[in-house]
Amino acid sequence: MTNGLHLATRMRRTRASGWSRALHGETVLTPADLIWPLFITAGDAQEPIATLPGVSRWSISQIVDRAKEARDLGIPCIALFPNTPRDLRTDDGREALSPDNLMCRATRAIKDAVPDIGVLTDVALDPYTAHGHDGLIDDKGYVLNDATVEVLVDQSLNQARAGADIIAPSDMMDGRIGAIRAALEEEAFPNVQIMSYAAKYASAFYGPFRDAVGAAGLLQGDKKTYQMDPANAEEALREVALDLEEGADSVMVKPGLPYLDIICRVKQAFEVPVFAYQVSGEYAMIEAAVAAGAGDRDKLVLETLLAFKRAGCSGVLTYHALHAARLLNG
């Protein structure tokens, strides 16, 4: 009998007990790393979303209750998305500019009742247009960049006046960050942040979200002329560089898990706050795996969120935010 190998370095040494694994952990996930996306409805009742099991649309009063839940669990910010009634959707998306639209009413209600939670508001026209695109279109269906930016500026100011803390343009129009930043400065909103959807890909993972905001079936064509090609990585770095030059305070990569390489490259190249959106299709896949008995929800949720932090994210937008915060708070 021998005493086995005499190794100076044994990588398993620090993994042998729980206290040691905790001591040597390189990445930490807390509720403060989470942003909870919430859907607003014009109705008074909770509306479950069939393609997003466990996710609902909420009335404005219910959204306030969700904000209180988030705050109490240590989630620092919520993200709002409206399900605009069909009769208010027009080709020019004019409801986006109404101070009494769902987004603005919900923002005011939350900031009145829960002033210590951050409110992130989506800036894009797809929840308001009859054709489902993120901007204005010409007679051939092409999204007009500069004309759309003018509307996005007004939409951003509308949301800032309602009390938004973070303006999050998700439209992918060229030049919109600079235009929005200039308008916020001119209108005396110097502390309203811009989190740019800087690298938003034309992804197959967005389907359930479109159901949630009532855009499913409305979209004419696709969004490939403004959202990014999933094949491209260098282009993402160019997009991020431009948005930072124009005044973005933080940037987002969307979707999340299929683009961890992009998150890592952006963080390494720019050393700025990078966020990921774990999108509806990613959430739905986890829930489908759990329903099929193919995975443990708690472990799947925490492992995927940890992957975002490990890749370089400052935070993650996730529909699992409430569940994850409860797990992390133990």
Task: Provide a descriptive summary of the structure in words.
With 330 residues, the protein is an alpha/beta fold. The protein has one domain (29-329): TIM Barrel. The chain is 38% helix and 15% strand. The protein is built from eleven helices and ten strands. The chain has an eight-stranded parallel beta barrel, surrounded by nine helices. Helix 7 packs across helix 8 (260-270). The longest helix has 18 residues, at 145-162. The radius of gyration is 21 Å and the shape is globular. The chain starts with 17 loop residues before the first helix and ends with a helix. The relative contact order is 0.14.
Residues in β-strands, percent: 15-25%
Shape descriptor reads globular
Oligomeric organization of the protein chains? single chain
Count of individual domains: 1
Q: Could you name the CATH class? A: Alpha Beta
CATH topology: TIM Barrel
Low-confidence stretches: none
**Rg calc:** 21 Å
The largest sheet is: 8 strands, parallel, barrel
**Helix run count:** 11
Query: How far from one another are the termini?
Result: 46 Å
SSE arrangement, N to C: HEEEHEHEHEHEHHEHEHHEH
- Fourth-level CATH superfamily: Aldolase class I
Specify the CATH architecture.
Alpha-Beta Barrel
Number of strands: 10
Question: What is this structure, in a nutshell?
Answer:
By secondary structure, the chain is an alpha/beta fold. It contains eleven helices and ten strands. Strand 8 (250-254), helix 8 (260-270) and strand 9 form a beta-alpha-beta unit.
